[in-house]
Amino acid sequence: MQVSSLNEVKIYSLSAGRSLPEWLSDRKKRALQKKDVDIRRRIELIQDFEMPTISTKIKVSRDGQYIMAVGTYKPRIRCFDTYQLSQKFERCLDSEVVTFEILSDDYSKIVFLQCDRFVEFHSQHGHYYRTRIPKFGRDFSYHYPSCDLYFVAASSEVYRLNLEQGRFLNSLQTDASENSVCDINPTHFLFAAGTAEGKVECWDPRTRNRVGLLDCALSSVTADTEIDGLPSISALKFNGALNMAVGTSTGQVLLYDLRSSNPLIIKDHQYGLPIKSIQFQHQLDLIISADSRIIKMWNKDTGKIFTSMEPEHDINDVCLYPNSGMLMTANEAPKMNIYYMPVLGPAPKWCSFLDNLTEELEENPESTVYDDYKFVTRKDLENLGLAHLIGSSLLRAYMHGFFMDIRLYHKAKMMANPFAYEEYRREKIRQKIEETRAQRVQLKKLPKVNKELALKLIEEEEDQQATRKRKQKNLPSLLKDDRFKVMFENPDFQVDEQSEEFRLLNPLVSKISEKRKKKLKILEEKEKEAQEQEEEPEGKPSDAESSESSDDEKGWVEEVRKQRKLLRQEEKVKRQERFKEDQQTLLKPQFFEIKEGEEFRSFKDSAKKQKLMKKTLGDRLKLEEKLGTLSVSDTTVGSKQATFKLKKSEQQKKQQEAEKQHRQERKTLRRSAGHLKSKRGRGQRFH
């Protein structure tokens, strides 16, 4: 929990601190809480009070039990039960929500205005009905006496949807090109709509006639304000029967009395950002206005600043919990912030323990400013050899380190590093030498790998800079690009200039490389001289570069021919070396094992097969007809029919012979058995 104070107003940030990921098990969460002090000391007022990426709107139900927030991604609404201090339900939607309204006292009736012109109704069980408005909606308000929903959109009309009859009514025609925000007075139900031209039109819902027009754009422009364009209305809020606050897109808040066309107070946020939200705090007569960067609280009578808050992330919406000092914000971050200010009011009933907690903190205040003390971190203590003092009275824990007596710090530093002054003196001398060296001509530092390629890139950059116009932007350098850093560091990327591809693709590289090699030698010599001598003697003339002109196309052709001749000669030499190696090697016979059941055939069979494969299909068919393995016959339809006879292997022949012998043996057995039966029958008849 972070505590900040401005104008002697203490603000307790209840959502400060790191949040644990959802996928962690309870056991790991408990282990982290034991190890990490920050996690142990954090206050999680409502469990998982956050969105996946960002939250756009946040509201509290009229009974104060439910907090509802919408956000992305994916578009969803989350409802949190304050009595259980946890999430009650979550519903995903088809598109992002522009704004929403809770019609009932609890979460049973909700209306969503979505960015794709759809209006979605939810009941207690979930999605109930969906309809569409003609233009893209910006805001809407609910008129309780007539059960009408008033929608302002990117058009001059204000659409009315009656929830009792379930149909659209005649729309209100305004003078604006586009309406941005709207609100209905809770006392006399006056409808007000803010326009893109910086005006507020007030309508009576009973007669459907316009009863007033306020030009807020002209009133917001004063002698001190600087604006680039016409300010439009970005926020609107009624307070009681007569007061109305208007926020503009240029960062001004105007407080009006409905009986006058001139504003009572004009408050400028000084940031030039559109006002996102306006809330009224009745106990102290404060107005809470917020843009995307800051939340300001100021007195509505005098305009004096009461306090302000600047969260880390941009603000999308602000919600003041009724009759309490709690403030909630929807931000451009997953976590939704919760602030508690005891000055504004007591803590809500469901978190009454906050009052006791803040009272204890105020009774035992921790001083944050120390005289004659030095702030050190844990690493500094380890370097000084004072890590064993952690937990003693000599060190006082504060934030991410400790406060210790400045005298003890100086003594420990002198003992740990007695030559600190000498090191400081050497460092100063080194800095002065570097300053003098910077005035001289600086040498080009080339990488260890692909030096010639780096030199080529440097020359091309210098040529481009000389020919490029002033207005054109500087192109990025390959040497400074992180994507190509490995090419000049890893020796595996070294360019092989002796390879065939390199020599054929770069025929002129030999002549150009000679120039670069000379430059490289010059640069290496200069680097050696700079390393050997601390100070370079002045007056040395720089080596003049050779001004040899590059060859024309004839020279290029000759160079290509030379490279090809050289490559052919190298290939001949390699062939001769291979031939000599083959002659020297002795060939030894190799033996192969034949599988069981197979017989060795001569290598002539494979040669015959290869010859057959070279012949055409017709020749092969004729040959197979002669051998008897193929028979071709004409059919009745007119086509030809070919039947093949596969050659039988020796194993198949042996199996067929064994089967024939087995059949013959069975026949003989059957015949002998038949003769015996006939003899026995004759003997019985004789007896």
TrEMBL record:
Task: Fetch the InterPro entries from UniProt.
Answer: Beta-prop_NOL10_N (IPR056551), NOL10/Enp2 (IPR040382), NOL10_2nd (IPR056550), NUC153 (IPR012580), WD40/YVTN_repeat-like_dom_sf (IPR015943), WD40_repeat_dom_sf (IPR036322)
Q: Where is the Nucleolar protein 10-like N-terminal domain?
A: 1-364
Q: Where is the composition biased (Basic and acidic residues)?
A: 647-662
As for subcellular location, the record says: Nucleus, Nucleolus
Q: What range(s) does the NUC153 domain occupy?
A: 481-507
The answer, when asked if ATP-binding is one of the entry's keywords, is no
Q: Where is the composition biased (Polar residues)?
A: 632-642
Its Gene Ontology biological processes?
maturation of SSU-rRNA from tricistronic rRNA transcript (SSU-rRNA, 5.8S rRNA, LSU-rRNA)
Basic residues bias: start-end ranges: 663-687
Name the UniProt record assigns to this protein: Nucleolar protein 10
Q: What is the lineage of its organism?
A: Eukaryota, Metazoa, Chordata, Craniata, Vertebrata
* Gene field: Nol10
